[in-house]
From TrEMBL:
Lineage: Bacteria, Pseudomonadati, Pseudomonadota, Betaproteobacteria, Burkholderiales
Keyword Protease tagged: no
Residue ranges of every copy of the Pyridine nucleotide-disulphide oxidoreductase dimerisation domain listed in the record: 358-467
Name under which the protein is recorded: Dihydrolipoyl dehydrogenase
Subcellular location: Cytoplasm
Residues that coordinate or bind FAD: 58, 122, 155-157, 324, 330-333
GO cellular component, one term: cytoplasm
Any one Gene Ontology BP term: 2-oxoglutarate metabolic process
Enzyme Commission number: 1.8.1.4
Cofactor note: Binds 1 FAD per subunit.
Catalytic activity: N(6)-[(R)-dihydrolipoyl]-L-lysyl-[protein] + NAD(+) = N(6)-[(R)-lipoyl]-L-lysyl-[protein] + NADH + H(+)
Keywords: Cytoplasm, FAD, Flavoprotein, NAD, Nucleotide-binding, Oxidoreductase, Redox-active center
Cystines in this chain: 49-54
Positions contributing to NAD(+) binding: 192-199, 215, 283
Organism this protein belongs to: Ramlibacter rhizophilus
Gene: lpdA
């Protein structure tokens, strides 16, 4: 006999588990299905983000940054370090422990909020009898048949492989394998200079690898404000990351002890790169394989993403989809916001997701974060604007930290002074960007931020000073 639920969520990543919890808070009898397994075969909810994405990468970024500071920067603080060594298995073990804490935390939240959890793969079977919802089959350690009046699909995305070069997670690595390298490679290649490429490249460079990044686009971080991207490129190059732009990758051979990549450089010259390991970071694809979308008539686009309207409704009544499996940026926090919004819409409320104020972050050192439009976008759209920048070099807290790379940049409407975009490269950019998100959500002006008292000494003063710079009246530069 099938188990009946008001809401069934397929997928336990950031979009899915948050949607399930919010639905339960709203009084719905809710189930969440997720198939991720830990190394013992037990449940590991949290999706790509928790298991092989956001959380473990930040753990390794933090550990590798400590290692680099101890080896290269502690001396500036009068701290003498002798016999510095790397225990990579312990570092990887710490990362795994952080992941497990998050897995266990989600399972606890399910119990706390009375969400029924099913460990396995969920797939559509058919419309329920009488047209009230859909029948969902769970395939795992124990098969179950569930019926939900409302279904939220949150099945996430998978790493995109190079054509003809599958991931073996030994020498040709996705983000998953990049987090589990057993020994620091002497040479490491990366194809793609996006978020994952830069973060993983930074981790292994700090630990001693010689890292080369091959990027097909002629510009570095094309989605980032050009001035910020140039500052970041300068910093990464100085650190030792070798970044080649405008390349065309040809044959990739994985044999013997390493990987050989043939490519054409930006000048049209044939080149080759031999590395011990290769990380491929060329984007992600929606994960809809095995969902039986075609069996129930759920419409997908040419990429395999689920087609939804502005409120995340699919073409099927009572079926919704959120996160990486639908249009929009593939960001964990975007998925969370959509998950909450859909649960509230099911309850008859008005869920809110503003794509214009979704922040973006790259957790390198320096960190890069932004919200809103870039200067090049404003120029292309013919929008008249004012710009203001302030360097961390002139910020007292940054000097005390010994981390003065980068700047804060404000873009405001020339007529109304409304903030149109804020872009940061520098220390703790991921935390500083939240003030800009709040300001833009409330349609604040740069003058509003310039008039707000910021604690001294703090990195946030650079935000205030950049806002002052829009009106050419910085106080400390």
């Amino acid at each position: 006999m099938s188990k009946q639920f008001d809401v069934i969520v397929i997928g336990g990543g950031p979009g899915g588990y948050i949607a399930a919890i919010r639905a339960a808070q709203l009084g719905f009898n809710t189930a969440c299905i997720d198939e991720w397994k830990n190394d013992k075969g037990g449940p590991a909810p949290g999706g790509t983000c928790t298991n092989v994405g956001c959380i473990p990468s930040k753990a390794l970024l933090q550990s590798s940054e400590h290692f680099e500071h101890a080896g290269k920067h502690f001396g500036e603080h009068g701290i003498q370090v002798q016999g510095l060594g790397l225990d990579l298995p312990k570092m990887i073990g710490r990362k795994d422990a952080v992941v497990k804490q998050n897995n266990d935390g989600i399972l606890y939240l399910f119990k706390k909020n009375k969400v029924a959890f099913f460990h396995g793969r969920g797939a559509f079977v058919k419309a329920a009898e009488g047209g009230a919802g859909y029948e969902i089959k769970v395939t795992g350690s124990a098969e179950e048949t569930l019926v939900g009046k409302e279904v939220i699909v949150a099945t996430g995305s998978n790493a995109r492989p190079l054509p003809g070069v599958p991931f073996d997670e030994t020498k040709v690595l996705s983000n998953d394998g990049a987090l589990r390298i057993g020994a620091v490679p002497k040479t490491l290649g990366l194809i793609g200079s996006g978020v994952i490429g830069l973060e993983m490249g930074s981790v292994w460079r700090r630990l001693g690898a010689e890292v080369t990044i091959l990027e097909g686009l002629p510009t570095f971080l094309g989605a980032v404000d050009e001035q910020i991207a140039k500052e970041a490129h300068k910093a990464f190059t100085k650190q030792g990351l070798k970044i080649e732009l405008g390349v065309k990758v040809g044959e990739v051979r994985s044999d013997g002890e390493g990987v050989s990549i043939a490519y054409t450089d930006a000048k049209g010259q044939a080149q080759s790169l031999d590395v011990d390991k290769l990380i491929v970071s060329i984007g992600r694809v929606p994960n809809t394989v095995g969902l039986n979308a075609e069996g129930v008539g759920l419409k997908l686009d040419e990429r395999g993403a689920i087609l939804v309207d502005d409120e995340c409704r699919t073409n099927l009544p009572g079926v919704w989809a959120v996160g990486d499996v639908v249009r929009g940026p593939m960001l964990a926090h975007k998925a969370e916001e959509e998950g909450v919004a859909v649960a509230e819409r099911i309850a008859g409320q008005h869920g809110h997701v503003n794509f214009n104020t979704i922040p973006w972050v790259i957790y390198t050192s320096p960190e890069i974060a932004w919200v809103g439009r870039t200067e090049q976008q404003l120029k292309a759209d013919g929008v008249k604007y004012k710009a203001g920048t302030f360097p961390f070099l002139a910020n007292g807290r940054a000097r005390a930290l010994g981390d003065t790379t980068g700047m804060v940049k404000f873009l405001a409407d020339a007529a109304t002074d409304e903030i149109l975009g804020v872009h940061i490269v520098g220390p703790m950019a991921s935390e500083l960007i939240s003030e800009a998100v709040v300001a833009m959500e409330f349609k604040a002006s740069s003058e509003d931020i310039a008039r707000i008292c910021h604690a001294h000494p703090s990195l946030s003063e650079a935000t205030k000073e950049a806002a002052l710079a829009v009106d050419k009246r910085t106080l400390n530069f």
